[in-house]
Amino acid sequence: MRALTIMLGLVLLPGHALAQFGNPAGWAPDSRTDAPGKPAPNQTNYQDRLFAQLVTAGGLAEVELGRLAAGKSTNDEVKAFADRMVGDHTDANAKLKAIADKSRMPLPDRLDPDHEKMRADLEKLDGARFDLEYMKAQVIDHQKTVQLLVWEIGLGQDAEVQQFAKETLPKVLEHLEMARQIQAQLADDARVRPAGTK
């Protein structure tokens, strides 16, 4: 809960506090500046590039797994969540790609091996078991994404990438809370369901 409060505090900082984006300790040695302590536009560092690649990989997985869940689940809440993931992450992926293109940052365009395995494992499941495993994966992936967004806000160099992270964090926190609630409900349902039923 304390970490959530700190993250929300970062998001709600006044605009003037966020105008000084960029962390000089993490700047690339060849970064150009517009003014002392202010990198020129589209100047990325290692953190920006790693962030963009990892968040894009996660976003592609959210869309792919969301489509799988929307078609496979019979639970209305899970289906609605999956549809929301497809819509929200398609939008976020497009925004980040537009920013990355300006800075010539290469981004993945297909699932990484971990998410390929996750999809293959989920495709083997049905019914309540599928729903629970999908939602467990959503909680874990959204926790990772929250950490990446906070990391970029603190250590990134490119102001547009940092701004993307700042604007995306509240939505990802909302997704995480939704996923936790649905997972908890599914786990409760599984505990009261008689053994041997789906």
Task: Walk me through this protein's architecture.
The chain has 198 residues and is an all-alpha fold. The chain has one domain: Ferritin, core subunit, four-helix bundle (Ferritin). Helices cover 72% and strands 3% of the residues. The chain contains seven helices and two strands. A two-stranded antiparallel ribbon has the order 1-2. Strand 1 and strand 2 form a beta hairpin. The model is unreliable at 11-20 (pLDDT under 50).
What global shape is seen? elongated
Enumerate how many helices there are, as a single number: 7
Fraction in beta strands: under 5%
Largest sheet: 2 strands, antiparallel
- Tell me the total number of β-strands: 2
User: Rg from C-alpha positions?
Assistant: 19 Å
Mean pLDDT: 85
Protein name: DUF4142 domain-containing protein
Organism: Kumtagia ephedrae
Signal peptide: 1-19
Pfam family, one: DUF4142
Give structural attributes.
signal; Ferritin-like; 7 helices; mainly alpha; single chain; DUF4142; two-stranded antiparallel sheet; Ferritin; 2 strands; 198 residues; DUF4142 domain-containing protein
Topology record:
Blueprint: H1 2-11, H2 15-18, E1 33-35, E2 38-39, H3 46-72, H4 76-102, H5 113-123, H6 127-155, H7 159-192
Antiparallel strand pairs: 1-2
Helix pairs in contact: 1-7, 3-4, 3-5, 3-6, 4-7, 6-7
Compose a concise summary of this entry.
Pfam families: DUF4142. The protein is mostly helical and 198 residues long.
